[in-house]
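Reply to dn_fold:

You asked what the input looked like. This is it:
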Amino acid sequence: MNILAMTILPIVVYGSPVLRAESVEIDSTYPAVDQLITDMFATMYEAEGVGLAAPQVGKNIRLFVVDLSAWGEDEPELEGYKRVFINPEIYEYSDETGLYSEGCLSLPGLNEDVSRPVTIRMRYLDENFEPRDCEFTGRPARVIQHEYDHLEGIVYTDRLSPLRRSLLKSKLSNLTKGKYKASYRTK
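and this is what came back:
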């Protein structure tokens, strides 16, 4: 087994055009994809996140990683829940929605209640480029939808009501001006 050295990548902050661009599909010939996946997990852990999408590290490709193990104590089924999603496509959403406080490594210091479908179905490729078709519910569905949005050029504040977005306008503006504090490397 080839052990890859890990690099902590800087996380792109709100205001960068890369977060608003739609990402492109990749295949197994994408340069150093294994290294990128390794680096994305390392970066996510360093920033104490549970998910990280490629646009958040400056790459507009359809790839994100999640590790929900941190919630394993409260929800034993999430122990060891570490996944790679390549070229994902959500094709079914439940009618039932739930409200949950979300944060984002690209929006340091902000948390807002976001409504999302409780269950989704999605096709994707795993880290070995093997096709998968799975249903996700609860916290996995929420985190996956959040990261999936990044591939579509959407950030979670886009899902808030116009009134709530307008109340956040100055905080979002400060992010674009570099006026924020983060405990991890950003750009």
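The CA atoms of residues 123 and 133 lie 4 Å apart.
Hope that clears it up.
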